[in-house]
Please model this.
Amino acid sequence: MADDEYILRVEDIHKSFGKLEVLKGVSFNVKKGETICFIGPSGTGKSTLLRCINQLNIPDKGGVYLNGEEVTNSGPRINEFRQKIGMVFQNFFLFDHLSAVRNVEIALLKVLKMDPKAAREKALYELHQVGMEDWAEHYPAELSGGQAQRVSIARALAMDPDVILFDEPTSALDPELTREVLEVMKKLASAGMTMLVVTHEMGFATSAANRVVFMEHGLIQEEGTPEELMNGDGRFKEYMGKIGDIKE
Model:
């Protein structure tokens, strides 16, 4: 398949922290509009992989390419690429002293140098997209965890990214708040947003993901549609069986 059919290419990414080798050569391609869920045991490099993609962690080896352009080794262009590779973290990283709408619009004003009126309109639109328009003037301390996470998603959307990376976006939330965030993410997936999601939420993975990537020991062990992996007899199915035993 031609390279231009992929919006994102990740090639042979290696990353170590001291003597600990976290990623041992990870490669995959992403088509525009795909939702890919990364599943696997804790400590196997899933979050590190996302951080390598947008260069919060610099890979020791390998390359990341967005729309055919290299993100790795991009020097002063890295902030340009980060505008196109949004990221939503476990913790929301909202500015406590700014309202929800100000949290969304600040990058539009400071980074994109938008007109203040246009930035406010864009911010309010993105808050509407995630069901938070009625909370636009509230501060993070006045929001639930699920509401704060939806504001952080709106902030990522406001930059009109080509890809959004979600690093366990519901891990700090209780089940009810998890549900409201996952519903927003399902809506984005249905609308064709390209998303890479590190998650333990298998309900989301099976209902929204085009592809599931199972990682262990710093490598991709299996990948395929949710149905292919669930119906297979590989390590993924064994892992899922153990999770089921624990929950029971």
Remarks:
- DSSP finds nine helices and ten strands in the chain.
- The beta strands are 8-17, 20-30, 35-39, 61-66, 69-70, 85-88, 163-167, 195-198, 211-216, 219-224.
